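EI: anyone free to look at a 152-residue chain?
SC: sure, send it
EI:
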Amino acid sequence: MARTFRLLIAAVSLMGACGPILAEEPEKEVRDLVIAFNEAYLRNELSEYFSYYADDATLWFNSGRVALDTYRQDWHKLIEEGGGIEMNNLSDIRIQMSPGGDAAIATYLLEVQTRYPDGSLSKEQSQESDVWFRIGESWRVAHVHYTVRSGE
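SC: here you go
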């Protein structure tokens, strides 16, 4: 009986020691996806970039709500005409996981420079929030809220 009790105490202690490690895995996975998502954006790899989105994703930009199909068409047109992203620096990435581990909110700051087909450049300091859902075996962006920081 004493041996069983000691084994039970050891098992509970081990579970407690492993709990935080296991809890960090989904957060690290989402953090890595946020970085990969933004790297695809920087490389103007549109098929890869848009592969991160859920089919029914909602997007909020300074102009308001934008349909995913409209956003996709606009980016393809920009790239086809010679424009694209030249800089996309992320900082202050924070990940909040849902209690069930199947949803996450990623917030971060961005410094983005876009080249337009006419050769002009825009540079923005922005804030972005992405909501990621685990859909089947993979994570997808279900919502993006991108705002250019005021005063810039």
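EI: Residues 4-23 have pLDDT under 50 and may be disordered.
SC: 👍
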